[in-house]
């Protein structure tokens, strides 16, 4: 990649240092991935960026990516690390996320303050952080530190506008007496207290932690609190685009006047890199990418393969693995399945389980431990995606124009899958069911019976996604405004550009 010219700016008689933005993601794959893309977009525009990873995550990125070489091409780009306070052998898995929250709240907070106050996060040409973009998932402690030091802070939520709005509305749902859920027979009851979702949001579409009968549950409380802390930030960044989520964005804007919807970030970055003739095949993966599946895909007919992946955190039990396996095999559809070594819990090692399956119908499927997902979804042989409905995966599928079968696991995924099926109509939601006959049926529906219907809508949405990051598109313009505001932040004028697009209807 060619080097980007250093950015210096005259104001009055003196030269200002380039703005330095600190970007601090929550240490999970989807969060780091999208925030690294934002970091590169800002660096491409000449901003100096400090990207702060936990040491644990940074070590994994060093093992599996070219992160150091890639960002060395940007003047003023710094990769820094901070402790997450947990011992090295802590699993940092989906069922121990509260440990990570608690530890970062107590240990990382004081470290962050110290690093910012001592200019440890700056360079000679831009010594001080002039603006912080922090993951809204740990909005409280980062905003406390920013306020104490007088640095403007913007929150980045890596989930969609739809789930952000549901998280934000949980206190209203509780106050309206619509939670707790009263048993299995109550799951299809409509929820009326999330503005804009009254006609389709059911109890079963609420984030999984709303399924608990105890509404004082710590995970629930934590996510609601952190979401409300975003009101203290100067602005909110969302990885979405207006043509996808305009109605929900307009509801969010009643509470958060300044929103920059600048997604889909992976496409936005790809587009900007193409204009400087740079390669965009880099990976931000915490696991080793197995590219052998691309050669296998190259040998398959167009749109014949369903890609199956449950993201970086979801875990399943052996029975569920077997139901998916038999459903996929019985559907007679070719499939490419990502089976991480830690995908199957409790009943033993995935490799051993798979060894029992491997001699059936071998030519019709391919298994990898971790795939180059964006490339896979863009491959002409891929015609569908069986997904856990993580937000990055959802956006990547939308951009590729690939219809989805959704099997959400936790957090925002229950909401995303409802939007995919009921609002955007680009797929089928099979949440809460894991049965081989259902799997076989929905795979056939998506890939054969209703294929044209889904393809038409998915292609239209893909076109709108790509349009949003082209010159003059909504995400393109919102990114320009964000950059203008970051520059103004140096002189205490954050947000005084003529700015924001009004989402109110
Ligand atoms: N991913 C990947 N290879 C895989 C599976 C996933 O590169 O085999 C990437 C995927 O492209 C996405 C991220 O991992 O960017 C997963 O994020 P998402 O928000 O979809 O789900 P999470 O892992 O946070 O549950």
From TrEMBL:
Alphabetized PROSITE patterns for the sequence: UDPGT (PS00375)
Recorded superkingdom: Eukaryota
Molecular functions per Gene Ontology: 7-deoxyloganetic acid glucosyltransferase activity; quercetin 3-O-glucosyltransferase activity; quercetin 7-O-glucosyltransferase activity
This protein's record includes keyword Transferase: yes
EC number(s) on file: 2.4.1.-
Catalytic activity: 7-deoxyloganetate + UDP-alpha-D-glucose = 7-deoxyloganate + UDP + H(+)
Gene3D superfamilies found in the cross-reference section: Glycogen Phosphorylase B (3.40.50.2000)
Keywords (A to Z) from UniProt: Glycosyltransferase, Transferase
Enzymatic class: transferase
PANTHER family with a match to the protein in the record: GLUCOSYL/GLUCURONOSYL TRANSFERASES (PTHR11926), GLYCOSYLTRANSFERASE (PTHR11926:SF1392)
Stated family: Belongs to the UDP-glycosyltransferase family.
Entry protein name: Glycosyltransferase
Gene name of the record: LOC107413798
């Amino acid at each position: 990649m060619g080097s980007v010219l250093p950015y210096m700016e005259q104001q009055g008689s003196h030269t200002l240092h380039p703005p330095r933005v600190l970007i601090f993601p929550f240490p999970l794959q989807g969060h780091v991935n999208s925030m690294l893309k934002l970091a590169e977009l800002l660096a491409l525009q000449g901003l100096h960026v400090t990207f702060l990873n936990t040491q644990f995550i940074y070590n994994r990125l060093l093992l599996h990516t070219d992160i150091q070489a890639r960002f060395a091409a940007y003047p003023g780009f710094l990769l820094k690390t901070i402790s997450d306070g947990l011992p090295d052998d802590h699993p940092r898995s989906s069922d121990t996320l509260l440990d990570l929250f608690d530890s970062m709240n107590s240990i990382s907070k004081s470290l962050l303050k110290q690093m910012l106050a001592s200019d440890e996060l700056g360079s000679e040409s831009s010594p001080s952080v002039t603006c912080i973009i922090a993951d809204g998932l740990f909005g409280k402690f980062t905003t406390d530190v920013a306020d104490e030091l007088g640095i403007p802070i913007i929150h980045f939520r890596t989930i969609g506008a739809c789930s952000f709005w549901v998280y934000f509305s949980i206190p209203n749902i509780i106050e309206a007496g619509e939670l707790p859920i009263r048993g299995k027979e109550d799951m299809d009851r409509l929820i009326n207290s999330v503005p804009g979702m009254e006609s389709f949001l059911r109890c079963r579409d609420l984030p999984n932690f709303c399924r608990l009968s105890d509404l004082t549950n710590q995970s629930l409380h934590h996510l609601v609190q952190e979401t409300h802390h975003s009101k203290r930030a100067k602005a909110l960044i969302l990885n979405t685009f207006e043509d996808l989520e305009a109605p929900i964005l307009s509801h969010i804007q009643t509470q958060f006047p300044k929103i920059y919807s600048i997604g889909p970030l992976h496409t936005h970055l790809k587009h900007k890199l193409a204009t400087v003739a740079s390669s965009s095949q880099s990976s931000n993966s915490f696991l080793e990418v197995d590219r052998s599946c691309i050669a296998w895909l190259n040998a398959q007919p167009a749109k014949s393969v369903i890609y199956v992946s449950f993201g970086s955190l979801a875990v399943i039990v052996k029975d569920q693995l077997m139901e998916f396996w038999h459903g996929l095999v019985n559907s007679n559809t070719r499939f490419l399945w990502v089976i991480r070594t830690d995908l199957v819990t409790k009943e033993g090692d995935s490799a051993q389980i798979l060894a029992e399956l491997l001699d059936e119908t071998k030519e019709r499927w391919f298994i990898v431990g971790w795939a180059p997902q964006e490339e896979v979804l863009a491959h002409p042989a891929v015609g569908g995606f069986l997904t856990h409905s993580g937000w990055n995966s959802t956006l990547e599928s939308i951009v590729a124009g690939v219809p989805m079968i959704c099997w959400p696991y936790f957090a925002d995924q229950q909401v995303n899958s409802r939007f995919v099926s009921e609002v955007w109509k680009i797929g089928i939601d099979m949440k809460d069911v894991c049965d081989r006959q259902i799997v076989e049926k929905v795979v056939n529906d998506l890939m054969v019976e209703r294929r044209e219907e889904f393809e038409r809508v998915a292609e239209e949405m893909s076109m709108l996604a790509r349009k949003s990051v082209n010159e003059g598109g909504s995400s393109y313009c919102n990114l320009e405004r964000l950059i203008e505001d970051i520059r103004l932040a140096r002189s205490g004028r954050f947000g005084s550009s003529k700015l924001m697009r009004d989402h109110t209807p």
